[in-house]
Structure formats: C-alpha cells, structure tokens
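Hi there,

I know you've been waiting on this one. I reran it after we fixed the sequence typo, so this is the corrected version. Both the input and the resulting structure follow.
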Amino acid sequence: MKSASMEEHKKHVPIDVKCGVITLSDSKYEDSKNNENNDISGKNIIEILEERNHEIKQYTIIPDDKELLLKTVKEMNKKGIDVIFTTGGTGLESRDITIETLKPLYDKEVPGFGELFRLKSYEELGSGALLSRASAGVYNKTLIFSMPGSPNAVKTAMDIIKDEIAHIVKHTRK
C-alpha cells in the first residue's frame, strides 16, 4: 500500500541524478584490456538507469583491488556523482573485497537495501541468499549500492532500488 504523503514527498525529487557504475572482476577486467566487454551486470545497471533518464557519468571495470576501488570511488565522488553502483566482490571468497573496502567509508549505512535484497533473494533462491553481503551507504553525500556480480542478482537489486534512487538522492544531498 502506497502512502499519500510519501508519493507527495517524491514529487520533489531531483531529476538530474548523476550515476557511476563500477564492476569489480579480475576476469572481466582482463577481458576489457583486450577490448572485450562481457560485463552483463554492468550493462544491465546502465540500461535500467538510462530507462529512468539518469545520467551515466562514468562506467569502469576494475580488478578486485582494494586501493583501486577506493581511488575510483573517491574520484567519482569528487566529480559530483550522486550514486555509485558497484557489482561484484560481495561474496565470501578471499578476493571479494567490496564490502570490507567500502563500509569504513560510509558516513551513514542504508541497512534496508541489504535486508530487502537478501529477503527477495531468499524468496527467489532459498537459503543460498545467506551468501550475499549486498549493502548500501552514503559517503560524502554520494550514495553507494554494492551488489553481487551475477546478472540475476543485479536485476533483483535494481528492482528494489530503481524507483527510489532520486528520492534517496534528495536526502543525501541535504
């Protein structure tokens, strides 16, 4: 059930949301160096954002590297990007460094995203949803969503957040 006050509140959201997309994957990074782009998840994020008329200011594929991830996020923040979407590196393997790298940057955490993502994943996949550490937070007025690398997981995550992006940005800008 939708709230009338929430719908009224959402009428005043920004229309100029600037987005950045970072794919973390050693293999996709190697492919990109050979002019191959097999990054279905990154492309899916961009397609969904463009359908909502959000501006893609930067898209990059990087290896699973903590220092490079920090550098990329901080550069995007300095460019005035409102929302950064990361895909990949959220699992439990030793090379999965996204959450440990980004969580200390957060000025505020947005726990509802990870909770809803795991709930929807559980409904779709069952107990394997326990493996996801999807998260979100705000760093220096930039909203960051960290999603798993699989295309299905990205679709699930974007279904949760796509209609709220501008609304959340309105609050992070204050």
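Quick highlight: The mean pLDDT is 93.

Best,
R. S.
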